[in-house]
Design brief:
The structure holds two protein chains of two kinds. Helix content of chain A is 70%, strand content 0%. Chain A has nine helices and no strands. In chain A, helix 2 runs antiparallel to helix 7. The N and C termini of chain A lie close together (11 Å). Chain B has one domain: Rossmann fold. In chain B, the strands form two sheets. In chain B, strands 6-7-8-3-9-10 form a six-stranded mixed sheet, with helices on both faces. In chain B, strands 2-1-4-5 form a four-stranded antiparallel sheet, covered by helices on one side. In chain B, a hairpin with an 8-residue loop joins strand 1 and strand 2. In chain B, helix 5 packs across helix 6. Classes of the chains: A mainly alpha, B alpha/beta. At the A-B interface, helix 6 and helix 7 of A face helix 2, strand 6, helix 4 and helix 6 of B. The complex binds adenosine-5'-diphosphate and magnesium ion. Adenosine-5'-diphosphate binds next to helix 1 of chain B.
């Protein structure tokens, strides 16, 4: 037991902020692109504005697809789809997962054990597999069902993390002090538990955002994602499969877009993890 | 009338092991009582019962004649206002994500106590020897002793009649410990104090009465001085012999 206040100076600061800034830049680029497509795209996404499978040119920076549509336009719309899917899936996963995790942490030992075991089993299945099952059960493939499916799949991961973090916080004396101060359990959750588990949770949300984007691309690649008017990168990849040797840009461009967003979000999560208030976490 | 009365209270975390065994205790208004026993003797458990966090398996606890019933929300609200606690570890007892204002004001907020909370917090901080300008600062900015003062401010902000302290100075270094004991001594002039410690020396310096707990049983109780000078029970004698020098 020590009585000295030790505030470790945050180390690796320069490196940390580099990670954070690169991540932030990549993610911001996708956000701006996604928002831009709401009001402007280089070409009409459905318009056959060029020849079929044109190579990149000044007119079509990423060439055209097999129907002669501008490929850059579709990649840009793909950013929007990916962001919607990531945000939606993480939001659903967070609401369900955090609620379940809190309930498990507060539940009687028996119920907690049952929930923990269920979560462990669910997590043992790949996110994609669970999502595929949910989509198959919903039997209409659209953007909404893909988001919902991914959200459900992610919620198990969120629930397990929330449960562990909450149990750790519940051992702290400030929780007992809150109760002897007359704070209700709901007040304890909102005033003490959530603020204290939030930093770790938010890093995890960022990582799961990347997971969801990849999983959605995979669903679309398998034809289980959003149907044609939505230019998901996964579907673009799938469409480019047949022409990958004659027009490699069709596979390279959506691949790069996907990788840059996922790497960006991971770098951001990494940077956040190392910078999230190093000072307030004395001890 | 007694402030708090325990009558033949027994408790165990599991059915196989008894932690408290037939504890009877009568706390009068104005008392300052030291509850002494080795680690594991059940002191913290006894405080949990007094705080209404756990219910005894048998026996009864009453506060000013009314039964302590953790399930009675209205009673507990009034009770929490009267009975507050300070814990051992000043690092774990303050929420690292809350400001001093928010931490100290928690009983006022949760118990819906009327008045200018900010001013009440400032008054409490001043009375534990802290500057009133720390309201917007966070726990990590303070030393162990200062943190313990903040925890004490939270415990007294609602004006309780009974202050419970569970090893409240055990985690502090010697000079800080002396100052916090001094502060508790000042406070004990204004309120009833139950001070739990494994360290009979500190209790001797602070409390007028002593209760000795051995493995969940009270083996000796009474005024501090006679017990220190003439301990009856072998367990008390052993506790005393482990203290190198008795304070005057
Ligand atoms: N939450 C708990 N669950 C089970 N046993 C406990 C728990 N807390 C304390 N005990 C046991 O109860 C006994 C008394 O512990 P405690 O009241 O903490 O003693 P003290 O505060 O005097 O050191 C010990 O044997 C301890 O192991
Ligand atoms: Mg203890």
């Amino acid at each position: 037991m020590t009585t000295v206040d030790q505030i470790a100076p945050p180390k690796r600061r320069r490196f940390v902020s580099l990670t954070l800034w690169v991540g932030l830049a990549l993610v911001t680029l996708h956000i701006i692109t996604g928002l831009l497509t709401l009001v402007w795209t280089p070409y009409d996404p459905a318009g056959m504005t060029g020849g079929r499978l044109e190579a990149p040119s000044l007119l079509h920076w990423a060439g055209t697809d097999r129907l002669g549509r501008d490929f850059l336009t579709q990649i840009m719309i793909g950013s929007r789809i990916a962001l919607i899917v990531g945000t939606g899936a993480v939001a659903i996963g967070a609401v369900i997962g955090v609620t379940l995790g809190l309930l498990a942490a507060f539940a009687s030992k028996l119920l907690d054990d049952a929930l923990a075991a269920t979560l462990d089993i669910l997590i043992a299945f790949p996110t994609l597999l669970i999502a595929m099952l949910v989509v198959a059960a919903a039997d209409t493939a659209n953007l909404g069902s893909a988001i919902f499916a991914l959200g459900i799949a992610l919620s198990a991961i969120v629930a397990r993390l929330t449960r562990i973090l909450t149990k750790r916080v519940l051992l702290m004396d400030y929780i007992t002090a809150a109760r002897t101060s007359g704070t209700s359990w709901l007040g304890v959750v909102f005033r003490h538990i959530l603020p204290n588990i939030w930093p770790t949770l938010s890093v995890s949300f960022a990582l799961q955002f990347g997971l969801a984007v990849i999983a959605e691309a995979s669903l679309s690649y398998l034809g289980l994602g959003a149907p044609p008017p939505n230019a998901s990168w996964g579907r673009l990849l799938q469409e480019a499969q047949g022409t990958v040797y004659t027009a490699p840009i069709g596979a390279i461009a959506p691949g790069l877009a996907l990788v840059s967003l996922v790497i960006g979000i991971n770098l951001l999560a990494d940077g956040l993890r190392d910078t999230i208030d190093p000072t307030r976490r004395a001890r | 009338m007694s402030l708090l009365k325990l009558d033949n209270v027994s408790f165990g975390y599991s059915s196989t092991k008894t932690v408290l065994d037939g504890v009877s205790l009568d706390i009068q208004p104005g008392d300052s009582i030291g509850l002494v026993g080795e680690s594991g003797s059940g002191k913290s458990t006894l405080l949990r019962l007094l705080l209404g966090l756990t219910r005894p398996n048998s026996g009864s606890i009453s506060f000013k004649g009314a039964a302590l019933d953790p399930r009675n929300a209205a009673f507990m609200r009034a009770y929490r206002r009267q009975v507050q606690v300070v814990f051992q570890d000043p690092y774990s007892s303050l929420d690292p994500r809350q400001t001093v204002l928010s931490i100290v004001a928690e009983p006022l907020r949760s118990l819906k106590i009327a008045g200018d909370h900010r001013q009440m917090v400032i008054d409490a901080l001043v009375s534990v020897g802290l500057e009133p300008d720390i309201l917007t600062r966070y726990p990590h900015e303070f030393s162990g002793g200062q943190r313990q003062r903040i925890a004490i401010a939270r415990a007294i902000v609602a004006g309780p009649e009974l202050l419970l302290a569970d090893e409240a100075v055990s985690a502090l270094d010697l000079s800080t410990r002396i100052r916090i004991v001094e502060l508790l001594k000042q406070l004990s002039a204004k309120m009833t104090l139950v001070f739990v410690s494994h360290d009979i020396g500190v209790v001797a310096a602070l409390c007028e009465k002593i209760v000795i707990l051995e493995q969940g049983r009270i083996v000796e109780a009474g005024a501090t001085r006679p017990i220190l000078t003439n301990p009856q029970h072998p367990y008390t004698q052993r506790l005393l012999s482990s203290v190198p020098r008795m304070p005057a």
